[in-house]
TrEMBL record:
It comes from the Bacteria. It comes from Leptospira fletcheri. SUPFAM superfamilies: Dimeric alpha+beta barrel. Residues 49-111 form the YCII-related domain. This is Transcription initiation protein. Belongs to the YciI family.
Amino acid sequence: MEEYLILMRLDLLTKEAQPSPEQMQVYMKQYQDWVGGIAVQNKFRGGTGLSKEGKVVKSGGIVIDGPFVEIKESLAGFIVISAENLETALEIAKKCPILKGEGNSVEVREISAVHDRN
């Protein structure tokens, strides 16, 4: 069983794209149900939301605003799941409720170990 990162992207910056508090409750319930369904299958490994603010460090120690200064799409959060293969991870990702929002997307990447976990 491999581990996959599901990155959730949506517009966190445009005021008109932000849900009302009532909509946010509905969206969070859908999200929690989706994650709960993954956890019931013992495939949920972790995850969290991310703040809107961030900086990018480039080579040479250059720090810039971003990484989303020029685009509306923001990285809202991520989860790590276990799946048999990329196709299975994609099937799980396709059920992410964030995809109900126009222009939103999720990205699925297999985690490859760079560091020894011991």
